[in-house]
Batch of 3 targets.
Target 1
Amino acid sequence: MEADKNDAEQIPEEQQLDEGCIKDEPDERLIDEIIKENIQLKEEIQKLEAELQEATKDLQIKEDIPETTMKFLSVESAEDESQFLNISCSFQVSSLVAYELQKGQALITFEKEEVAQNVIMMGKHQVKIEDSHVEVTAQPVLLNAGIRFQVRVEVSKVKVNVTEIPDGLPEEQMRDKLELSFCKSRNGGGEVESVHYDKQSRSAVITFVEAGVVDKILKKKDYPLYINQSCHRVAVSPHIERHVQKYQIFSGISKRTVLLTGMEHIGTVDEETLEDLVNIHFQRKKNGGGEVEVVKCSLGQPYVAYFEE
């Protein structure tokens, strides 16, 4: 009887072990599926990031800002001390608007808006070209869409970028090493407020408590990082944040430029001579004109004129 009882007690234990094995197998399959999905998602993200970077290449603007003499007129007291933590500047950027001038057309720009509007209101004009008069029609210049936006650049006085960080330590440990190295005053460091470390890009942003520390660190292009009794040189650079603000798409009608049409069949003069004759005609007040800035005519191939805002 005792043997039977022991067998009876062993059966549930064996069943329990079998059930545990059965439960572990689906869990392992589920984990494998999740790992595969994560790998696929990472690949898709990398692909999308590459496509986004390629798509934005045409929208990137690279322009050298000319040197400008600056004159400081007054000193203003800041409402908040945090305003002194950044050096900031802003730039207004506007695109040129292209307009295609077709054969037999001309663009004439006046110095005053009211003159251009008066020429358009008159509509038809008899322009003397050599021994004959040619009727031209004055029309407003409908411009294509353009863009304008403001770029704000801020250079931090309390943050510094660190790159070329050696790999080999866990993230938390590397953050500690960075904080310990950058707080050493003998190397130009100071009290560290926070460390944002990115293991994948081997870079970090160090934020200091005091503003003057960054200036001392940036006097050199690198900084000593101590790891396991070894000294590594990491690159340091200013922490710059860029913001695009007030992005606008605009279109409209040129206020001082007029489109002249009706000169398709003029073949006896060249473009430069025609521009002079059109200029002379519309300089005269009796013809409804006024002071002219520039005239551009097309008697052959189309031209592209660019308008500024």
Target 2
Amino acid sequence: MGSVDTSLVPRPPPRAIPQHHRTNLGPVWRWGLEPSPGSPQGLVSVWQHLCPCAGAPTVSIFLKPPGVIPPGGSTTICCSCQCADGNAVLYKDGRRLRTRELRDGRAEFPISNATQKDAGPYSCHYLAGGTVLARSETLEMTVTAEFRLPRPVLSVLPALEVAAGARVTFRCTITHPRAGCFLYLEGQDKAPDFIHKDQDDFNLPRVHKGNEGRYSCQCYSGAALVEWSGVSNSLDLVVKDYTWSNVVRLVLGAAVLVLLGLIVAEDRHRLWCIRPAGRGGHRTAPCTQSSL
């Protein structure tokens, strides 16, 4: 496989971009492939700033489903917070739009019949007691009418359920000879993985629990005029840690055996025997080994 020609890579699909990086500061990274001078499109800088203080709540923002959206399409902007109860406030271009109560740490803002007016930068604020406690990075949502490629098909090898440490291959198949594709993981707020047109698939050499989730892909072609496909079918990858599962089973099995042993010991302790007594009578007394 040859080197990647980054000049043919289009502007990234919707993803989270740190607000303070949406400037012309350099260097910035284009798809994590090579540095380029400051970009007016707000691509990602090499510096990451997630939270200024340890233990503070964090907020992430992502699209469900992910990807570039056609006019008339629909999607949902999700704000996820590792925090207690409160509200999520959705902003666009610094302008407050809507407020939703967090439920199980998430608030959703659906968008239907999307137009170019819906495109642009979005962010979430976590609000509790009237005070903003955390801000998400910025999600750049793209709406375009250039959907002319066939929809790709995503497959996962060797299976959708694998053991931790296994090698997993994602294959995005499209009937177009010069299409590159992006691999999306729902809920991920970093740039999607890129499958170059000279590649057949994307590989994870050793999967772990953090790789679990719902995957899909979307393809594009062209340079000056970028044409897109729709988003593929989605597949759920499950990673099983069988080593930990076996440890849990052994512990539970040992606990059951100990419990059964205690029950048997208690029953033997309470076992009484009928013994003969003087003048043809009888009496009860605790059994001994010789009387059993």
Target 3
Amino acid sequence: MAKTTEVTAGSAPAAPTNFTFPPSLAPFKMPLKAFLGAHPEYKGIAVGAFVFNPEGKVLLVQRAAHDSLPLLWETPGGACDYEDESLLHAVARELWEESALRATAIDALVGDGIPFSTRRGPLWCKYSFLTRVEGYDVKLDPNEHQAFLWVTEEEARAGKCGDVEFQYTFKEQQLSVYEAFGTMKGKTTLA
């Protein structure tokens, strides 16, 4: 039986900034302002972290009932800030803020960036990364998320983990989860 884990309130120390990354991710080792300067088609950048536990399950988090897209499921992530040292640092910060997991390595880009429009209209792009962490003791920020699951690829595709049925925030998030499993295996599995 799958069990969602409820949120406990608390404040976390500053986001960790020590992590490794391969040369293939060097294009993301620049501050937001520089990245947007090189990609003027985008007005903002979002990032996501795909974290797999030792059993090969990926972390999904359920958005808070009082937040936008209430009760839907996604991977940890969010908007890059101008204060972030780089886009990769934004991945580590968002993962830390949303789950209290410390990134030790950002290993690979999952797929390509996914362009999207916000409610106000500007075009953004979301980049998601396979991210290794130190420990797996998830502590959610109750302002953003209220539960989490570690799911297998089969469960991710079925939208059900034990007795917990879940829906993704967007179709693109769902497809990215499938692609993350493929990236972990060294292949692409979108369908």
